[in-house]
Amino acid sequence: AQKVTQAQTEISVVEKEDVTLDCVYETRDTTYYLFWYKQPPSGELVFLIRRNSFDEQNEISGRYSWNFQKSTSSFNFTITASQVVDSAVYFCALTSGYSTLTFGKGTMLLVSP
Amino acid sequence: DADVTQTPRNRITKTGKRIMLECSQTKGHDRMYWYRQDPGLGLRLIYYSFDVKDINKGEISDGYSVSRQAQAKFSLSLESAIPNQTALYFCATSDAGLGSYNEQFFGPGTRLTVL
Asked: N or C: which end of chain B has fewer CB within 10 A?
């Protein structure tokens, strides 16, 4: 069975602070894919990144960066210099490619001015 | 035009009513999914279909049924709605091909309220 744990239910920061959202996963598959989605207050799900289990390189996209560590089964997401527009619920998700997508419960990020 | 559409976008109904949520996609994907989202619980899978002749129960299928009318259409029905089915419902699609990562593409969501 697959499982995704996002232990932080809610994080509050002040604008310009850096913030890291944690994601820990469990799977018996050797090939799997990890995703992060953003859900702003408007409700839609916005795809942020995907990563396969064979690619442990960290990735940076503007103010966003992701740290994938197979040794600790973690796929953490960092926002540098947070902005009010980053306020949203962020979901981490996992699939083996032949199974369905398993979501974490999400982390609500509140960025205040 | 959006690749995955859901109708209606918002719906208020009464306990005991039958309601259908519809999902259409233009991505040409074989796989389609229905999720519900409740605050603090993330997205939970209700039903999924890997092709037109395939229907599978997800984590929380009780009280729901689905119909895969065509590759592009996947409907979710609540035969007799109850208040704890009040939630945000998402439809999603994915490609089964190699290299697809099984990445899912989501519709905009349907906000359902059962009074």
From this structure: N
Count of Cβ atoms closer than 10 Å to residue B31 Cβ: 20
Q: Please, how many CA atoms are within 13 Å of residue B4, restricted to the half-sphere of its CB?
A: 23
Pick from B106, B90, B39, B89: which is nearest to A46 by CA?
Answer: B106
For A47-94, what is each residue's pLDDT tens digit?
899 888 888 888 888 999 999 999 999 999 999 999 999 999 999 999
Question: Which residues does chain B have within 8 Å of residue A45's beta carbon, measured at their own beta carbons?
Answer: 90, 106, 109
SS3 B69: strand
Nearest to A100 among B45, B88, B90 (CB): B45
Q: Which residues of A touch B44 (CB under 8 A)?
A: 103
In terms of Cα–Cα distance, which of B1, B8, B20, B3 is closest to B103? B3
List of residues 6+ apart from B14 with CB closer than 8 A: B81, B114, B115
Which residues, 6+ apart, have CB-to-CB distance to B102 below 8 Å? A33, A95, A96, A97, A98, A99, A101, B31, B94, B95, B96
CB B106 within 8 A of CB A44: yes
Q: Is the pLDDT of residue A37 over 70?
A: yes
State residue B7 phi and psi, 5-degree precision: -135, 140
Burial per residue of A98-111, b for 16 or more beta-carbon CB atoms within 10 angstroms, e otherwise: eebbbbbbbbbbeb
Q: Report which residue type is found at B12.
A: I
Q: Name the token pair of B93.
A: 């699609």
What is the average pLDDT value for chain B, to the nearest integer?
A: 92
